[in-house]
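Q: Okay, next protein. This is Protein translocase subunit SecD from Candidatus Nomurabacteria bacterium GW2011_GWD2_39_12. I've checked the sequence twice, so it should be correct. Can you predict the 3D structure?
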Amino acid sequence: MLRKIVLAAIILILGVGIAFFVFKTEPKLNKNFEAQSSFFKKFPFRLGLDLSGGSHLIYKADVAAVPSGQVSDSMEALRDVIERRVNLFGVSEPIVQVQHGGFVSGGEEQLIVDLPGVTDVKKAVEMIGQTPLLEFKVEAPKGVLQDAVVGKDGTVNVDLNSQFVATELTGRYLQKASLEFDTNTREPRVSLQFDDTGTKLFAQITKDNIGKQVAIYLDGSIISAPIVREEIPNGQAVISGKFTPAEAKTFVGRLNSGALPVPITLLSTQTIGATLGESAVNAGVKAATIGFLLVALFLILCYRLPGLVAVFSLSIFIAIILTLFKLLPVTLTAAGIAGFIISIGVAVDANVLIFERVKEELRSGRTISEAVKLGFSRAWFSIRDSNLSNLITVMILFWFGTSLIKGFALTLGMGVIVSMFSAITITRIFLSTLIFIGEGKVARFLFSSGLSK
């Protein structure tokens, strides 16, 4: 008995600690959240696109030219490139995932991009789909015809672009771009580092054009045309244009993101406002609260003392699940909240099976101690089979479903697993601890069913 009391006390302390953690790490619950330590601030709930608002983009990847055995690798490379570009938005927790050809995607290789908080779809599309074209050009040799335009006043204006000719050096050979600031003027500039091939090409270009201009073009427009003072053998170049810090940062990010491994086509876009997302969160929380209170009332009225124990066990179950959502972390969507609410029902179902078994044993003349012990052992097989069938369904939904269905399956699956622990372990420990009340009429009344015959 002493061991059970100690276990019950430990579970009680852990339950309170877990609930305290959930409270401390949630801004909407903790009014002093901003004053908390950085540890608690690291674990807010991660809300999905439908709850936080933002943009949902679906792209089709053209893999016709990719060998069948390399499609998966190409799609992963595409995901990595797009993810790097998405990070330029400064978006909190963007989601970029591959949807391989199958029934859900209609046999097409697709890329799904969720940008929470980004409602400017046009800007998002431009940033994701745009690949910068970086070129290095040298002065055209003497005698080469140049384009010119004669103005109304008779002046001749030579086309600047015709003064330069292309070289083999392009952004293809770029290894890394970084943002720097001029030590004298404090103006932002972009530093380039080429790979081995690019370093050789750049060294040859600077060697052959000492005293001449080397023009740097971005997307067909000249952005800088410095004069070469000496050969540069280390493959490092600097672009100093009229950049703002934000423009230079975006430029560096675009250069580092590189070219897309496979062509992509935008299939659909969807924008979800923050107001709609907040109302969905409030509705989900309200539904969960009302559902929990009704279930608690049902358990207490039907099963009296065991029902009260089940409510306490259910509270610990909810605290554990919410903590796992924060620590893993799990991206919560409206469908995910629905899965969590259903898992509360699953947890209740296990307790109902146990209590009905206990009630049957009491009717057959068993003592409370024997009834509780046999009730748990005989209800275990039904609980195991029902939860295994739930987990099989969850795995099928997670494996074949879309991202929306996967969110539902994940939260439901986690709830099913934790509910088995809360019903079999927590409820059992606390119910067994309460057996000390004896075997009298009051004890049997408290352990008997309240609304059943």
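A: Here is a summary of the prediction. The two ends are 32 Å apart (CA to CA). The chain has a mean pLDDT of 80.
Q: Noted. On to the next one.
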